[in-house]
Design a protein that fits this description.
Layout: E1 15-18, E2 21-24, E3 30-34, H1 40-48, H2 53-61, E4 63-68, H3 75-84, H4 88-91, E5 97-99, E6 106-108, H5 120-126, E7 131-135, H6 141-144, E8 151-154, H7 163-166, H8 171-175, H9 186-202, E9 206-210, H10 214-218, H11 224-242, E10 246-250, E11 256-257, E12 267-269, H12 270-278, E13 283-286, E14 303-308, H13 314-322, E15 327-332, H14 333-340, E16 350-354, E17 359-361, E18 378-379, E19 387-392, H15 398-406, H16 414-420
Parallel strand pairs: 3-9, 3-10, 7-8, 7-9, 12-17
Antiparallel strand pairs: 1-2, 4-19, 5-6, 10-19, 11-18, 13-14, 14-16, 15-16
The protein binds zinc ion.
Length: 423
């Protein structure tokens, strides 16, 4: 027990409010884990071949369900939905990358500037709940640890964590190894090892662990590397439970193979298509999946926003887009916001979803696929990656069993279920 962070905890039965929802303070240590890119296919496969024994046990001893993630099915959007408990129309983060309509500038999200509400983690922390956040990717930390005191750091910058900014120091010593490579499975496994050490040494009441989808972008369910990685995740979950925690697990999005049988990626370069049909400079296509970790997907996913650069016939452009092979759904600004609870002031003129086997991009020169280095393209962003596991290590109470059964279940309900829904 670290005396520096021991302080009065809120009384049992205390609740906190966040974005119109009410959460009980933790009855016992509670850990919410977002396994980035954890498609239900990995869970099914791992249960079937015995590599996920802890998660498999939740079917009898806890809860095992499937939830919808927020659209687009990207990392920032969904981690933000999960920590705020609300969809993007409320929290404002509708992708990793956007076009600023006022300046015409294209911006990568690396901070909390676009966040329009507080987080559940912040509300718990302000109520005196001892909270901790460990994330693989540093780009997420400012949103996840927004207005939260306590421990908060990324494995990407584990060596830079300090008491002043991160509420913890000497992380490499605590975990017993050096800061992992940004492009490695260990970037995520380090998060789990740190989480186990933090739970045993600092005893936070609430901890949020968020990983990277490096492995899932490279390896399909059934490949040994995918089995080894998810088995390591399962082992860490077992350790957290053994330390007395209630563990809840979900994902930010699923993952699908986006290549032809010969390994060639199935790509629609939509900006090239639209500008060759409607005139050069007609549109700019923005891929909200673009992030600082593009090596494994070349910034190609299954959802894009089309912005008209000059007056044009949106209806004709949408109709043309629907004729392109691999395009599943095309919706104008109002429709996409209504159907997927997105903020209308941050939407393009129309939105395009490609199917589960296809990615949609901007111009050919915007996407460097040479770094796939022989791997098939696996990615996310669209409707084919909307389903995610929704798991709890303890049984649900009657009210939440009914809610789970009646649905709909969203990944951003996971804090509600972990704090209000378990026996
Ligand atoms: Zn992700």
């Amino acid at each position: 027990m670290n005396e520096n962070i021991a302080y009065a905890r809120p009384a049992a039965g205390t609740t906190v409010e966040a974005n119109g929802r009410t959460y009980a303070v933790p009855k016992r240590p509670t850990v919410v884990i977002v396994v980035d890119g954890f498609d239900p296919a990995y869970l099914e496969h791992g249960i079937a071949n015995g590599t996920l024994p802890t998660m498999a046990s939740f079917r009898q001893n806890g809860f095992m369900g499937i939830a919808d993630c927020s659209m687009p099915s990207t990392t920032n959007t969904n981690n933000t939905s999960i920590v705020t408990g609300v969809p993007p129309v409320v929290h404002g983060i509708n992708g990793n990358y956007y076009l600023d309509a006022d300046t015409g500038e294209e911006i990568m999200i690396t901070d909390a500037k676009r966040l329009r509400c507080g987080t559940i983690l912040g509300a718990l922390s302000q109520a005196g709940v001892n909270t901790a956040v460990v994330t693989a990717k540093d780009k997420l930390l400012k949103v996840l640890a927004y207005k939260m005191s306590g421990i908060g750091f990324s494995s990407e910058y584990a060596n830079k964590a300090n008491l002043g900014e991160n509420g913890i120091e000497n992380v490499e010593t605590l975990v017993g190894r050096g800061t992992p490579d940004q492009y490695s499975a260990d970037l995520s496994l380090f998060v789990f090892d740190a989480g186990v050490k933090i739970l045993s040494s600092y005893r936070p009441d609430f901890m949020y662990l968020s990983t990277s989808d490096y492995v899932q972008h490279k390896h399909a369910p059934g490949e040994p590397e995918a089995d080894a990685y998810h088995h390591a995740v399962d082992t860490a979950v077992g350790k957290l439970i053994a330390l007395g925690a209630t563990v809840a697990i979900t994902a930010d999005h699923g993952m699908n193979d986006k290549s032809a049988p010969d390994g060639t990626p199935n790509v629609v370069y939509l900006e090239d298509e639209l500008n060759s049909r409607f005139g050069a400079g007609s549109v700019r296509v923005i891929c909200p999946i673009a992030d600082p970790f593009v090596r494994h997907h070349g910034a190609l996913g299954s959802f894009v926003r089309v912005h008209l650069l000059k007056a044009g016939d949106v209806t004709a452009m949408m109709a043309f887009t629907r004729t392109l092979h691999g395009i599943e759904l095309v919706l104008d600004k109002e429709q996409v916001c209504k159907q997927f609870e997105l903020p209308i002031d941050r939407e393009g003129d129309f939105a395009v979803f490609s199917d589960r086997n296809t990615v949609v991009g901007a111009r050919r020169e915007d996407h460097n696929l040479s770094q796939l280095a022989g791997h098939r393209l696996r990615s996310h962003g669209g409707l084919g990656e909307q389903k995610v596991p929704f798991l709890l290590s303890r049984p649900l109470n009657a009210e939440y069993r009914k809610r789970a059964k009646d649905g709909p279940l969203h990944n951003y309900d996971i804090f509600d279920f972990a704090l209000n829904g378990v026996e």
